[in-house]
Give the backbone structure.
Amino acid sequence: MTERTCLAVVLAAGEGTRMRSGVPKVLHPVANETLLAHVLRAVGAAGASACVVVVGPDHDAVAKEAARIVPGAEIVRQMQRLGTAHAVLAARDALARGFDDVLVVFADTPLVRAETLSRLRAAIADGAAVAVAGFTPADPTGYGRLIIDDGRLVAIREHNDATEAERAIRLCNGGLMALDGRGALALLERIGNANAKSEFYLTDAVALANQSGLRAVAVEVEEDDVRGVNTKAQLAETEAVLQQRLRQAALEAGVTMIAPETVFLSADTKLARDVTIEPYVVFGPGVTVESGAIIHSFSHLTGAHIGEGAEVGPFARMRPGARMGKGAKIGNFVELKAAVLEDGAKANHLAYIGDGRVGEHANIGAGTIFCNYDGSAKHRTDVGKGAFVGSNSALVAPVTIGEGAYIGSGSVITEDVPADSLALGRVRQVIKEGWASRLRSLKAAGKKDRG
Ligand code: UD1
Ligand code: MG
């Protein structure tokens, strides 16, 4: 069978005023990806061969995000909000090119799964002209009702236009739709706006298809697939559902989590099997953890790569560009940024390692700081293989510590240190014998004098 072509039309023109935010609604994140990005990835995974994103008149940021996720996406503007069918028709040129399937997806339903979109496409492949995602919400107020007659979907009635009897129907329109691509444009162009809101309703495609003797079907989906985000509270609820899904997927992939409900993941977090994550760990975007690594409690990781069997935390922070090799270790209150800790290297306590490299099996003592910033520019620190940096040292970048070198504790290192040497950059210790007891007797004498 030859592969069916599919056009996805993603409606992202929503205003989102109920978010009470200066940021367009579909650019809000869940699991560190925008709502729009989640939807675009799902349509891609459902096999869309082309994608049109319909944005509002002043939605340059939305257009930019769409292009970041799907570089080939076509961006069209809906200048006036005249209804969902009107919005889809902003993609008229693409629709006219003729696809096998057309998917219409709202950009504010980030939990839509590719499998669900594929089921809608399958209904079209099976001969339906229109396939609608139906679900049964606890409270159907506001949703379009699916009117089924003798197993056929005959119409969708919007809440405002529905009779009392129709409002009693529990099966609602989730908003996702697939259309037979060959007839989609003609069908959409027949939609009028004689209704309670004077809007061009996409949902009227169902009744019009039936009038032409074409078949429309409802495909039942889970509520999460069509869960829309209109408020910050719904954004938080959606985040919770997504976190649950991500944790479940990690557990199924062989990750050990003692208290998964306390671990926060990003949509792009990559965890190998036999990774252990202790309670209360936060994964920002761009983290990969290799097999056998342990992330101890209260660690915060972003843009980091953690090698096989490495150990992180508790209370560690990894920022973008942080990389740990096999069996490397960072302990409590260690921050790693744009720096590599090669295989077996260690920084067990209280250190800042920024813009540099720590060679294999080198040891960074407690309280070591890579002084990477001079107030205007960042500089690099390079610590050679097997070097030992004593506690409370300041390595003032740019600086290189040679392989196997020792740095005496409390040193301020401003010049390169040759391999296998000892560098001391601190004041020599002075001893004054008996000084303390002389001080105490002087004090005692003074007190007697004052009577
Ligand atoms: C729509 C459906 C309703 C369904 C519900 C599910 C229609 C007519 N109604 O109703 O049957 O139960 O979704 O959530 O389709 N949009 C535009 N341009 C417009 C109008 C809307 O881009 O001119 C976009 C919105 O940004 C949003 C989506 O289309 O992403 C749905 O619009 P919305 O106004 O939320 O429709 P509902 O009234 O909720
Ligand atoms: Mg809505």
